[in-house]
């Protein structure tokens, strides 16, 4: 059943919703697989890019004064290629799987809300990229802190799988966290969350951001926590400003008779009456 076979309000039977969800998932997975193939082909330059933060760690605690990543198992090489390919695939296919999410939800939205969603979708990818870029430039700071805590008479051996898991978690946690302010703007535009409510919850929001940053970051060091929390708070402030102007514009466009009771007479619009009278005089 296609979308054009659905009702005018986007309603579909439960089984058709499940079939629609299946089709959207298949398209998203296919785009991820195609992106993963590209990541597998270009593994070498991607891996050189991903390991640069580790190469900036001071070699004081490394064997022979050189910090090399270690492969522990026979099959680690294959799984490293696979994990890097999936990271590249998720990034390259993000516009497609984000669109599939929107296409599944869109029929339940009003027409104006669908127009806003196009704008939000266009902003989601750059925000994710901005968060991932910030994670990339801060990864070496967290590595330096924790590797530097090793005693001076010990050698640090970091496995490739451990480092890649750390890098993957950093990139996706930062990228997805930067999407949260955009989600707040979406809730404001569809009328669920007002700027006044955001303003009243500001202190709780700031506290929650710091708690989330302390728990979600893989290294949980103070530098990485602040690197995630402070830009996120700035983005939430930007979201509040956008919500403020949107609420003001919506208030100006509100129906002047919306708050009247059903049995209450509405005031006369004298300007409209004069305009109709002048129009009648011109017609005569």
TrEMBL record:
<feature type="transmembrane region" description="Helical">
    <location>
        <begin position="84"/>
        <end position="106"/>
    </location>
</feature>
<keyword id="KW-1003">Cell membrane</keyword>
<comment type="similarity">
    <text>Belongs to the TatC family.</text>
</comment>
<keyword id="KW-1133">Transmembrane helix</keyword>
<comment type="function">
    <text>Part of the twin-arginine translocation (Tat) system that transports large folded proteins containing a characteristic twin-arginine motif in their signal peptide across membranes. Together with TatB, TatC is part of a receptor directly interacting with Tat signal peptides.</text>
</comment>
<feature type="transmembrane region" description="Helical">
    <location>
        <begin position="204"/>
        <end position="220"/>
    </location>
</feature>
<keyword id="KW-0472">Membrane</keyword>
<comment type="subunit">
    <text>The Tat system comprises two distinct complexes: a TatABC complex, containing multiple copies of TatA, TatB and TatC subunits, and a separate TatA complex, containing only TatA subunits. Substrates initially bind to the TatABC complex, which probably triggers association of the separate TatA complex to form the active translocon.</text>
</comment>
<keyword id="KW-0812">Transmembrane</keyword>
<feature type="transmembrane region" description="Helical">
    <location>
        <begin position="118"/>
        <end position="139"/>
    </location>
</feature>
<feature type="transmembrane region" description="Helical">
    <location>
        <begin position="226"/>
        <end position="245"/>
    </location>
</feature>
<feature type="transmembrane region" description="Helical">
    <location>
        <begin position="25"/>
        <end position="43"/>
    </location>
</feature>
<dbReference type="Pfam" id="PF00902">
    <property type="entry name" value="TatC"/>
</dbReference>
<dbReference type="InterPro" id="IPR002033">
    <property type="entry name" value="TatC"/>
</dbReference>
<feature type="transmembrane region" description="Helical">
    <location>
        <begin position="169"/>
        <end position="192"/>
    </location>
</feature>
<keyword id="KW-0653">Protein transport</keyword>
<keyword id="KW-0811">Translocation</keyword>
<protein>
    <recommendedName>
        <fullName>Sec-independent protein translocase protein TatC</fullName>
    </recommendedName>
</protein>
<keyword id="KW-0813">Transport</keyword>
